[in-house]
């Protein structure tokens, strides 16, 4: 009986020691993840001279390229007043910290401190318009975007040269004939994450199919044709410029990786 008690105490002590080691390992891993996340949020600024040098290098690459495309994320719309998702608490952006950063910190956006504009009132930025000019000049083949704020379409970029992987908050599509409607309002009406019917019908009298918004939420599949065409441009390209994206949301973030060039 005594021997049994000692054995039990020894086993319990061994398990306790292993638990302590396991907790220490988990804390260390958590600390490393946090350090990595903080490093990813760090903002870097080039000197005017270095920036000029990089801009000239990019211009040379664009002129020399045979198939150039641009991949954009939320960061290109912050200067239009639309907050991004991942910028840190200490960001210099006028829109303030990213939406997910605020959520993680349990904070609300300070409307007095931060300059924020509704996506419906936002105006395409100099960046958006520069891409339109490059496309008109025949230098830019297309823009592949993760953004659903509608600024690329509003900028005048042709639909044939734009692939909106995560949809467009102003576009709804007929489930019967496939016709798209570009609206001057946000088309999404459903309160349920994975329900996309807007309650409106196709204008075509011979169709009258139900309309759905085009927004892609987390856990949903991207439109196959848009995704495959985007990958096709990635494989053809000898130059890809990524702007405003942390390249962390799959499968969209994999597209620039297939470019066989710079």
From TrEMBL:
GO cellular component assignments: nucleus
Annotated catalytic residues: 166
PROSITE patterns in alphabetical order: SIRTUIN (PS50305)
Cofactors named for this entry: Zn(2+)
Chain sites annotated for binding Zn(2+): 174, 177, 202, 207
InterPro entries: DHS-like_NAD/FAD-binding_dom (IPR029035), NAD-dep_sirtuin_deacylases (IPR050134), Sirtuin (IPR003000), Ssirtuin_cat_dom (IPR026590)
Gene3D superfamilies (UniProt xref): 2.20.28.200, TPP-binding domain
Protein name: Regulatory protein SIR2 homolog 7
Listed GO MF terms: histone deacetylase activity, NAD-dependent; metal ion binding; NAD+ binding
């Amino acid at each position: 009986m005594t021997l049994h008690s000692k054995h039990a105490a020894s086993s319990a002590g061994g398990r306790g020691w292993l638990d302590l080691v396991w907790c220490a390992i988990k804390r260390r891993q958590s600390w490393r993840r946090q350090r990595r996340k903080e490093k990813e949020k760090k903002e870097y600024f080039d000197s005017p001279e270095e920036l000029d040098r990089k801009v000239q290098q990019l211009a040379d690459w664009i002129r020399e390229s045979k198939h150039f495309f641009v991949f954009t994320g939320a960061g290109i719309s912050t200067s239009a007043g639309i907050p991004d998702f991942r910028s840190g608490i200490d960001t210099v952006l006028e829109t303030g910290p990213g939406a997910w950063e605020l959520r993680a910190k349990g904070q609300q956006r300070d409307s007095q401190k931060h300059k924020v504009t509704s996506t419906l009132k936002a105006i395409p930025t100099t960046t958006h318009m520069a891409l339109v000019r490059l496309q008109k000049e025949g230098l830019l083949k297309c823009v592949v975007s993760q953004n659903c704020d509608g600024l690329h379409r509003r900028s005048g970029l042709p639909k044939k040269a734009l692939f909106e992987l995560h949809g467009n908050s102003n576009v709804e599509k007929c489930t019967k004939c496939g016709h798209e409607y570009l609206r001057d309002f946000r088309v999404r009406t459903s309160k349920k994450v994975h329900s996309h019917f807007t309650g409106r019908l196709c204008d075509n009298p011979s169709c009258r199919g139900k309309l759905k918004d085009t927004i892609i939420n987390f856990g949903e599949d991207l439109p196959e044709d848009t995704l495959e065409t985007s990958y096709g441009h990635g494989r053809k390209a000898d130059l890809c410029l990524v702007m405003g994206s942390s390249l962390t949301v799959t499968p969209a973030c994999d597209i620039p990786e297939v470019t066989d060039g710079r």
